[in-house]
Design goal:
The structure is a homodimer of 383-residue chains. The first copy, chain A, is built from 12 helices and 20 strands. In chain A, the strands form 4 sheets. In chain A, strands 3, 7, 8, 9, 10, 19 and 20 form a 7-stranded mixed beta sheet that branches. In chain A, strands 13-12-11-14-16-18 form a 6-stranded parallel beta sheet, sandwiched between helices. The longest helix of chain A has 15 residues. The first copy, chain A, is of the alpha/beta class and 383 residues long. The two termini of chain A are 37 Å apart.
Chain lengths: 383, 383
């Protein structure tokens, strides 16, 4: 047991009050020494993923966002519309730590052998609260990175790599043989494209812009459809027919895209039928929505027979469903291919305070593929 | 082998031409003698189910429907809008027989013992083409009805009873414990309500009208929500919370109802959570769309976390999935409870020709719960 005083460190917290007021701030927090099976990690790199923004900003009206406080202790404020407060009820008046994943160095360890073995090691960690200078968690939740790996290289070991691998694993387990992916030029999309190339899986990449098309093709993708192109419907139909894809992962969520994909799958399936059925093909067509880049309603025209399904897909329950051994295999692959298949590229590295500047917020809230932020909570802010 | 001349009999056919013209007519058809394993059934009762209307009318514009010909040989004509012809391609220029199910008397049988054993028996049959005076099919496809059962009593042995039983079976197999059903005052809905009452399953019935509410309550239903009521949202939320239903079968399809049900399920699930998650509850919420009373798009607002799914549900693939033995158990239950749980009530019995009158078409196309037609193809039309 350590007799040193418990260290204090900065932690980012997001609070939504009962009044609807959002307040994001940096709080000096006391970190008690780790328990027997725990370690304390000095977080040196934590990405801002689209999946972090929901907890960070809640259902705030983005036009109400302002930044007050000082450059070193900024305070972001905003207002959640009354109509959306219902969905916030579970978190009202709780200052919540944020940041799904990160990497850093183990600076304190409990007395169990597993914890002690990690002392001084560089580890990747997942479990929330990573936008903080320190994070204490169970030793078993740490993924030890190979010697010589910098925290910045291991910061994104979980969310995007495991989601991309989870998509391929879902494809195999549910009996599909090819995949469709929307918002395919994202960091995650590029990983998925590399996995599919390595594994010989046909992938239909859907992007919105010409430059995203080029980005993916330069990375080795062969089938890319641009939803802004006047020939998109025909391109998509051909790509889906050529690949035989009957499963799609959709990061967009709102609008007609999910339905368009199902319709293209059905056209391909009907073309292979030998007898008419007014119920459409019996080929099961699945779209999983795993993101919400478009928050509007999903519109399903149901012109694709009866053998279809649209549903949510989330990493953590998926990993629980496949079991510890299968999940560990996926994690090991991430470590093995961390600097190749699963390499992430960041456009900006910021401190906790810099992450809360108006300028930063405007950039990463766009969730575009051109900006990818990495937070280093232990980087000193400019004064 | 019979040396008698092959009999001719009337058969209803629906034809959509490449030009988009719909033509429904009665055709004098020659029926060759049954093969060794086949029987010929004189169809005496066949219901007009909502699921028959798709094949009967295709994607016709209902405002273009006219009836020509003679009272004994009416010819229904109409026009499919060009924009909808894509979905009709699989059936273009093929005069298709219609009528999913029916019952009648076996009037000819092939020489196999199974076929011979049915000679003279009253049987229920499924497999299309039942809007005809004769129907030849494999003996194994016939469900022999208990002595003393009239064809009219056995006409609806398959579609509605097996769909209702399939819903309950799906609930059990997918780990749910209670059900939600929309358009719940339908013939099928009343059967489902009786099954649930018998089996001790909690069922949330959603109807649109006060009189439907009363109809269901008078049949023993305890939980009925009226979607026209100003308190519908609250009523539904309470009913779903009280029953713990996480599975719904939706006959409506279009609009916001499926999403409203998911939202109510999520509210109930979140109320049982002890810790906030921005991904919502981990309770899986499922809506199966099995009908399309509202042909408009399904609108999903996705305010119910990530553990949800909306998909098509169809009887035949479901029966194939559960296997022959399990399907046979369901069929046997239908026969055992044909005059109680699975009794159907018809408001009109019509001949083939009468089924094609403007008056009849207007009534059964409404797919309301107040009208239920039974076709007796061997009833002579008025002259």
């Amino acid at each position: 047991m350590s007799l040193a005083p418990a260290p204090t460190a900065l932690q980012l917290r997001s609070l939504i009050k009962g009044s609807g007021e959002l307040e994001i701030s940096l709080v000096e927090t006391t970190f008690p020494p780790p328990g027997d099976d725990e370690v304390t990690v000095r977080i040196e790199a934590s990405p801002i993923n689209p999946s972090d923004l929901g907890l960070l900003f809640g259902a705030v009206d983005p036009t109400t966002l302002t930044v007050a406080g000082t450059p070193e202790r900024p305070v972001v404020k905003g207002k959640v519309p009354d109509a959306l407060m219902g969905a916030m009820m579970g978190r009202v008046d709780q200052p919540l730590p944020v940041g799904n994943e990160g990497a850093g160095v183990v600076v304190a360890a409990g007395k169990s052998p597993a914890a002690q073995a990690l002392l001084g090691a560089t580890v990747a960690v997942m479990g929330g609260g990573m936008y903080a200078q320190l994070r204490t968690l169970r030793a078993s939740m740490c993924l030890r990175l190979p010697d010589g790996t910098r925290p910045a290289e291991g910061a994104s070991c979980f969310v995007n790599p495991l989601t991309a691998l989870g998509m391929v694993e879902t494809m195999r387990r549910e009996g599909h043989t090819a995949l469709v992916h929307t918002a395919a030029a994202s960091n995650l999309g590029q990983m998925l494209s590399r996995i599919c190339e390595n594994d010989g899986i046909q992938l239909v990449n859907i992007v919105r812009k010409k430059e995203q098309e080029e980005l993916l093709r330069s990375g080795g993708a062969t089938v890319v459809c641009n939803s802004s192109s006047p020939t998109f419907a025909a391109d998509l139909a051909k790509a889906i027919a050529d690949t035989g894809a009957t499963l799609a992962f959709d990061a967009v969520g709102g609008g007609k895209l999910a339905g368009q994909i199902l319709a293209a799958m059905e056209v391909a399936a009907v073309a292979r039928m030998t007898e008419y059925s007014r119920y459409g093909s019996t080929v099961h067509k699945q779209v999983y929505i795993y993101g919400g880049l478009d928050r509007g309603p999903t519109e399903l025209s149901r012109t694709y027979g009866m053998a279809w399904s649209v549903g949510g897909w989330l990493l953590t329950p998926f990993l629980q469903k496949i079991g510890a051994a299968a999940a560990q295999k996926l994690r090991q692959r991430v470590v093995d291919e961390l600097k190749t298949t699963f390499a992430s590229h960041y456009t900006r590295v910021v401190s906790l305070a810099e992450a809360l500047s108006s300028d930063s917020i405007a950039a990463y809230r766009k969730m575009g593929t051109s900006e990818k932020f990495l937070v280093n909570p232990n980087r000193s802010s400019p004064t």
